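Format notes (please read before filing issues)

Several people have asked whether sequences and structure tokens are stored in separate files. They are not. Every record keeps both together, in the order shown below: the sequence lines, then the token lines. Line labels are part of the format and must not be stripped during preprocessing.
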Amino acid sequence: MFTSQDIRIAVDAVVFGYKEKQLYIVLIKQKFGVYRDRWSLPGGFVLNGEGLKDAIIRELQEETGITTSYLEQLYTFGDDVNRDERAQVVSVAYFGLVNPSKLDLSASTDAQDVAWFPVNEIPELPFDHNEIINKAIQRLKGKLNYEPIGFDLLDEKFPFPSLEQLYQTILDKEIDRRNFRKKMLSFGILNETDEKVSIGGGRPAKLYTFNKEKYEELLKEKFVFDIKFV
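Then the structure lines:
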């Protein structure tokens, strides 16, 4: 026998981007309601007959124009029954990774604007969206310590120092570069190209690409990626 409920299910997304040695999060400006003109995470209510992941993919496309190949369920927020003043709403949050240089942000539906914000300049957001963002940052840092992710944040071809800088920026720590390079290359998830790029005044650096197939094979084997810090 079903129990009568007046609970709504929503989805929210923390989408990370990386540019100019800085980690960013995409936010939308609300177009309607009591939080009109306030910045918040993209998201919305799940439609009848719609799966959670389909819902967040739809909301991201409608409110930001973003399509991401890396999207992971983060956490369910609903312990505070008053987190949304409109009704009792349980939100299933996701986090994603994208390269901002490959995207043209576009606000539509109930978003009047969309923009990238540095993670250290996030304003006070409605609902519990600041808490959701903090949870996503913790998850991202945690995963980087044991699983080499983040390639979706880089260009298709990148010099190895850019990968090092990405990790140091997100983890906010100086890594043991020699150990990091040796371990990363040992996995076989980076393909060396014949191309090079100049970085600063030093010697041209080789460009690499990410071998997604090899990476997925290693995931099945549950390989360990332990970063050492200086």
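For reference, the curators noted about this record: Residues 129-146 form the longest helix (18 residues). The chain has a mean pLDDT of 92.
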